[in-house]
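Thread: flavin mononucleotide complex, take 2
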Amino acid sequence: MSDERYFVVRGPVEPGDQRGRELGFPTANLALRDQRGELGDGVWAGWAERPDGTRVAAAVSVGRRPTYYGADGYRLVEAFLLDFQGDLYGETLTVWLGSHLREQKAYGSAEELIEALAHDVQETRDWISGHPAAALPALGTPPPDGEVRRVG
Ligand SMILES: Cc1cc2nc3c(=O)[nH]c(=O)nc-3n(C[C@H](O)[C@H](O)[C@H](O)COP(=O)(O)O)c2cc1C
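Output below.
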């Protein structure tokens, strides 16, 4: 049992701009069908679950990538999986957003964004140490792709 509450978003991993690789933080991008909803923009610590049930710690961005797209971008979920290497394209990921770390920000340079991402990763490590994957609440029937479910 867990007394924690999570937002859960699920969907197939879509190709991104490949910029994440250049920054050193490749992300698995998921479409958000729910463009308004109760899940606001921000950066979260959580877990990403693969189809085989493996759970990988993730620093997750929900928003419009304001550094690159101003306020005009479309909202999406981008998960950077910690200590993971591999190709996730086409795989369906279930992403658990557990702790809201900060708001989205438009950074002045790629270097500043990279610095912020490194800090997000450290905060995610701190959070997962107290919130192991085994303690996630049961999901039940998964939400439709791209829709946000509140769990717990
Ligand atoms: C943990 C995390 C936090 C992020 N925070 C921000 C942010 O505050 N501002 C922003 O413009 N983009 C943010 N991003 C999104 C990056 O800009 C994006 O991942 C990068 O541009 C690569 O995009 P791509 O996957 O389409 O290649 C964040 C991404 C992650 C994984």
